[in-house]
Amino acid sequence: MIEITSIGQMEALVGQEIGTSDWLKIDQDMINAFATATGDHQWIHVDTARAAASAFGSTIVHGFFLLSLLPRLKSQLVEFKLGSMTINYGSEKVRFLAPVPVNSRVRLKTKLLKIEVAASGIKLFTKNNLELAGSTKDALVAETITLLKA
Q1: Which of 5, 18, 53, 62 has the most crowded Cβ, counting Cβ within 10 A?
Q2: Which parts pass through the membrane (predicted)?
């Protein structure tokens, strides 16, 4: 894990990969909990019998569940020690590239694209690739913006 203590340290990381998270296995209980939290009970995610008979052969993970994993996995890569809080500011160019079957493992690779210092704080622009174990395709690619508040 990288500990960021200065703007200069962040500037030195621009254009570089800042790390790779551990693998995370996504099981049906996690999928069901996400469905309950969001109200998205689409059968391909929660109906194991019906999904088994589909082209996917099992339930698959919600795309927005995958996107919501980014802060969890990113916390394994970097810790910011120069602000009072870290806020998810936005996402750009989000793409769900491959279905993620239940019990799959995913991990995050993150690259720092740029930083912007403004009165509101420091904006970090990152490219995030959520790798899918056993696949040549990433499950998700998203550019996100994190705001560090003083």
Answers
A1: 62
A2: none
Residue 9 host element (H or E): helix 7-13
Give the confidence band of 118 by pLDDT, cuts at 50, 70, 90.
confident
Taken in order of first residue, the domains within the chain and their CATH numbers are 2-24+62-149 (3.10.129.10)
Q: Which residues contact 36 (CB under 8 A, 6 or more apart)?
A: none
Calpha distance 7→117 (Å, rounded): 9
Rounded to two decimals, what is the model's pTM?
0.93
- Which distant-in-sequence residues (6+ apart) come within 8 Å of 147 by Cβ? 86, 87, 88, 89, 120, 121, 122, 123, 124
Residue with the two structure tokens 């790779």: 20
User: DSSP letter at 97?
Assistant: -
CA distance 150 to 144: 20
